[in-house]
Amino acid sequence: MKTNRFNDVASFERVTPEQIERAREFQAAVLCDVAGRRGALHGDIQPLTQSMVVAGPAFPVEVRPGDNLMFHVALAVAKPGDVIVVDGKGYQSGALFGELMVTQAVAAKLGGFVVDGAARDVATLRDSALPIFANGRNPAGPTKGLDGRLGVPVSIGGVSVEPGDLVIGDCDGVVVIPRADVDKVLKAAEQKLEAEAQRLAEIREGLLVSPWLDDALRAAGVIGADETLA
């Protein structure tokens, strides 16, 4: 009897739909700040259009540079809503995906692509319903003959990504929040928005120097204890 070694690769625990919807209320920058300014992928990984927003559980994939065999396997086994996060080693001398794979992802109701590698067919992909983040573009196609890894922790853009972690991305870039930290980070994000709204109101009222700035300057030894900017 034939067996499928990939039957269980997508069975990991994920952030919940409720957590994902709450996360969509916040900019990636806000979530990154309250997560300790950690989790932001390097700035080369950007959306194909500025309006693309991704939010969902990470389905990590590691491929060999220039080869997308395991990326195709991930497309076949990922669950609806999953964001396929590909450690492509930053390879830019050929594309790891294009129109065909994105069309398949849309049909499978996946949540998006975040790829440390290049895309192609960009003129078409810009109009896709799938949020797509990549580190560049190249017309050359990939090979499909090398092994990789699925559904295990990977490192992409300088960040460790575990299966089921929260992936959130917008025009500023992509942030990954560990699944165990999501509720704490979302609560902190709400508090940060409240504080920022208060500060915006103060600026409009003419309070142009941030209240914390004097203390920070004294701590850094820039001004003395009896000096002030105000």
TrEMBL record:
Mg(2+) binds at D121. It comes from Chitinasiproducens palmae. Keywords: Coiled coil, Magnesium, Metal-binding. Residues 179-206 form a coiled coil. This is Putative 4-hydroxy-4-methyl-2-oxoglutarate aldolase. SUPFAM superfamilies: RraA-like. Its cofactor is a divalent metal cation; Mg(2+). It comes from the Bacteria. Substrate binds at G98, E99, L100, M101, R120. InterPro entries: RraA/RraA-like, RraA/RraA-like_sf. GO terms for molecular function: metal ion binding.
